[in-house]
Design brief:
- The protein is α+β, with helices and mostly antiparallel strands.
- It folds into 2 domains: 138 residues, SH3 type barrels (Roll), CATH 2.30.30; 178 residues, no CATH class.
- 52% of the residues lie in helices and 14% in strands.
- Strands 1, 2, 3, 4, 5, 6 and 7 form a 7-stranded mixed β-sheet that branches.
- It is elongated and about 85 Å long.
């Protein structure tokens, strides 16, 4: 294994300085302090920005910046030598692989953490006695190929869930605007079919694949607030869906009876469907936003687990406070905001359900 220096010529990539980006966007591009970035120790994780070129037939056809983790191996004269712990993928002319040694400086560190590392890279940093004393968390980590397949499946199911709810909303809107009984009845029957045979399976599959992605990657299930909040929102959305579907089936059965004259009941119940589906779309979009932006913040459990991935004992001369884990001590503000809105929506549902306003009942 030879060290990879940040030169694009001949390697297809280079490192990006985060200090320049922070200077241009201090409100949106957060980085650790200079002291934190200058005091990494062996075993610490550093997230670096890799500017990667995609070539085809020797010609650059695309460029992009990927954020990837590097595990610090040693430090000398203000520079770090680390081991690439992320999967950079493959491209024509790209000489970069998981396990490659990377030379970088404090100006390249975008975040600091101690994510679970692969056996090959982590073992080069930590001593053998450390590896024997700590449980092997990587036994549950998927390989890059399986991880990409699981991620693709999860994204497809999650986006499909949102699309199915939008289709449900279209039927609700069409039924509310229609003046004829035939369209109203047909909409209720179609809504039941979409609900049971499309929305419910997609919801359950999204929840299942989300659990697989959390347990099978370095993010874990209870380590990061964005993962935990996404999981809770998905569970609540799925539970509300399963609780509400029998109501839709009831009105669909009423609509299927051709001699039924209780059309006003079918039309009044549409307000409840509009509320359920509308709020459902907002919740699903919030979940997708969390999965895309991955806001910072580790739970107390996550901080405790991360603190276990410390460097081997050092001499007293090296003793000093460790660097930041890239997590917020306490509950991040965005979690509090999401929690307040979630409580507000829950109270709204409770009030409407108790008063019967806008909620179909049977």
């Amino acid at each position: 294994m030879s060290a990879r220096f940040p030169k694009k010529d001949g390697h297809g990539w280079t490192l990006v300085s985060v200090e320049g980006r922070y200077a241009d966007h201090p409100d949106t591009f957060e980085i650790p302090s200079q002291d934190e970035r200058s005091s990494l120790l062996p075993g610490d994780g550093a997230k670096l920005l890799f500017d990667i070129e995609t070539r085809e037939n020797g010609r650059v056809i695309d460029r992009g910046v990927d954020r990837m983790w590097v595990i610090v191996r040693s430090r000398r004269e203000g520079r770090y030598l680390g081991v690439l712990d992320s999967d950079p993928g493959t491209a024509d002319g790209l000489v970069l692989h998981t396990g490659d040694e990377i030379v970088f400086g404090p100006e390249h560190v975008a975040a600091i953490d101690r994510p679970p590392a692969s056996t090959s890279s982590r073992s080069t940093v930590l001593t053998s006695s450390w590896s024997e004393e700590q449980p092997d968390e990587e036994s549950m980590t998927m390989n890059p190929g399986l991880r990409k397949f699981a991620l693709t499946t999860h994204i497809a199911l999650s986006v499909g869930w949102i699309g199915a709810v939008f289709a449900y909303l279209v039927l609700v809107a069409a039924a509310m605007r229609s003046q004829g009984d035939q369209v109203l009845r047909a909409a209720w029957i179609a809504m039941e079919l979409i609900g049971w045979y499309l929305i419910v399976p997609l919801a359950l599959a999204s929840l299942l694949t989300g659990l697989v992605m959390s347990l099978g990657t370095r993010w874990g299930l209870f380590r990061h607030y964005w993962v935990l909040v996404s999981l809770l929102l998905t569970i609540v959305a799925t539970a509300v869906l399963l609780r509400h579907m029998p109501t839709g089936s009831f009105f669909a059965s009423v609509a299927a009876v051709t001699d039924s004259v209780n059309v006003s009941e079918l039309r009044d119940a549409l307000r409840g469907e509009l509320l359920h589906a509308g709020v459902g779309v907002l919740v699903l979009l919030a979940i997708q936003a969390l999965n895309v932006y991955k806001p910072q913040g580790m739970t107390a459990y996550g901080r405790q687990r991360a603190s276990q991935f410390t460097s081997p004992p050092r001499s007293t001369d090296d003793a000093r406070p460790g660097p930041s884990l890239g997590a917020i001590n306490g509950t991040p503000r965005w979690v509090q905001v999401v929690g307040i809105h979630a409580i507000g929506l829950a109270l709204l549902f409770a009030v409407l359900h108790l008063t019967g306003l806008g909620m179909g009942s049977h």
